[in-house]
Design brief:
By secondary structure, the protein is mostly beta strands. 10% of the residues lie in helices and 42% in strands. A hairpin with a 2-residue loop joins strand 7 and strand 8.
Length: 125
């Protein structure tokens, strides 16, 4: 599950540096999770970063080692590549999380809770 927009978090990511020794580089970014640009891929989110010209960093969940909230509490997340997650904006501006796991879609909206189907899922198919 991706962090919620508006939440201030510290994200630790891990990347392999291109070298003959295969070194691993850790980066730590602290900032508020912002509404992601539409061009981001599933499993990516944006966090404000005033040090960059764009004003934000794109974080790919497959590189995330740890996420903590402003109080230092660990944020639960999965890097299971078989799970796909999308943030979908509803018709009234609410943001919903759509998930594809084990071949089945789910959404956190009320409509899905009653009908097991919703327009947010149809946007992701």
């Amino acid at each position: 599950m991706l962090p919620t927009v508006g939440t201030t978090i510290t994200v630790t990511t891990e990347y392999k540096r291109p070298s003959i020794w295969g070194d691993i580089q850790h980066n730590e970014t602290t900032g508020e999770v912002i509404k992601s640009p539409k061009w981001l891929k599933p499993g990516e989110f944006a966090i404000e970063n005033p040090n960059l010209p764009s004003g934000f960093s794109v974080i790919n969940m497959k590189n995330v080692v740890d996420i903590r909230d402003a109080d230092g509490h660990e944020y639960k997340f999965t890097t299971d590549s078989s799970v796909k997650v999308w943030a979908v904006t509803g018709s009234k501006g609410n943001e919903y999380t759509v998930k594809l796991q084990d071949g089945e879609y789910s959404c956190e909206c009320v409509g899905f809770q009653y009908r097991k189907d919703c327009k947010h899922i149809k946007q992701c198919i």
